[in-house]
Design a protein that fits this description.
alpha+beta; 2,3-Dihydroxybiphenyl 1,2-Dioxygenase, domain 1; 2 domains
């Protein structure tokens, strides 16, 4: 693998004032100091994982992928050069802002800003403390979690993430949309997490369908589901278990529209993993509620 994990995520929103309640009271992320006009959150020892800023749309602004070593970092540069993908080095201001040792910037085939970095700042001197008591999120070598992208350019996106960043196909969900229509949802990993990126050939006004946070215990999922309902946050899919990554989770709608999956107990990729195809997204539950 070239990329070790999804390290951080930048989002833009038209409803910045609604995010603190959603991020802190519902999801249980820890707010940290940030540049003016930006909200930043921790979910573990890394200085920050999620950034939210005001913007003209509610969508992904950038994704930061970590290279575990300088050799891996240089390998990404070599891959990009071989594929004819232009990139530039992050300047000192951006490095300080992202709190990393070094990074490069470029775009994926649908224009999403991608950053590859190494050497993130850790804040182990200030332990992660959830404002609502979430005991912790599953990160470490598996990174922030996963993102699920919507695109009409799946072949180009697939080649980009596999050939430029070193992702590997985990499996496919063949989803019927009604006779005779169907789509293939594709899932890719770069570490033991079942998928760090998912993608579907669907055109919507935004690129990001959802991002996922994984906890260490089922109780934290249940408590978060109650907090969402208590705070009037739309639960878009109720509790359920996915067929492919076996995650027990629910989905909520974030301020502005895209969703967040909040889950527990996703399966780990190991040396015995084989690519399979599923014909349903969930073994049980995950009923749409809106």
């Amino acid at each position: 693998m070239t990329i070790s994990c999804l390290g951080y995520l930048g989002l833009t929103t038209t409803k910045l004032d609604e995010w603190p309640t959603f991020s802190e009271t519902v999801l249980g992320m820890m707010p940290v100091s940030a540049p003016d006009g930006e909200l930043r959150y921790r979910i573990d020892d890394q200085a920050w994982r999620i950034s939210i800023t005001a913007g003209p749309e509610d969508d992904i602004a950038y994704a930061g992928y970590e290279a575990a070593s300088t050799a891996d970092f240089e390998d990404v540069k070599s891959r990009l050069t071989a594929m004819g993908i232009a990139f530039h080095n992050g300047d000192e201001h951006l490095k300080r802002k992202r709190q990393v040792t070094d990074l490069i910037c470029f775009k994926d085939p649908q224009g999403t800003n991608i950053e590859v970095y190494y050497g993130p700042d850790l804040a182990t001197e200030v332990p992660f403390t959830s404002p609502v008591g979430v005991k912790g999120f599953k990160t470490a070598q598996q990174g922030l979690g996963h993102i699920f992208l919507l695109s009409t350019e799946i072949p180009a996106l697939r080649q980009f993430y596999m050939d430029a960043l070193g992702f590997t196909l985990s499996d496919i969900i063949h989803m019927p949309l009604g006779t005779p229509e169907s789509v293939d949802l594709e899932f890719y990993h770069c570490n033991k997490r079942h998928h760090t990126i998912g993608m579907a050939p669907v055109k919507l006004p935004r690129k990001l369908h959802h991002f996922m946070l994984e906890t260490h215990n089922l109780d934290d999922v249940g408590y978060a589901l109650d907090r969402a309902r208590d705070n009037g946050i739309p639960v878009t899919m109720g509790l359920g278990k996915h067929t492919n990554d076996r995650m027990i989770s629910f989905y909520v709608r974030s301020p502005g529209g895209f969703e967040v999956e909040f889950g527990y107990d996703g399966v780990a990729i190991d040396e015995h993993w084989r690519i399979t195809r599923h014909t349903s997204a969930s073994s049980w539950g995950h009923r749409r509620t809106e």
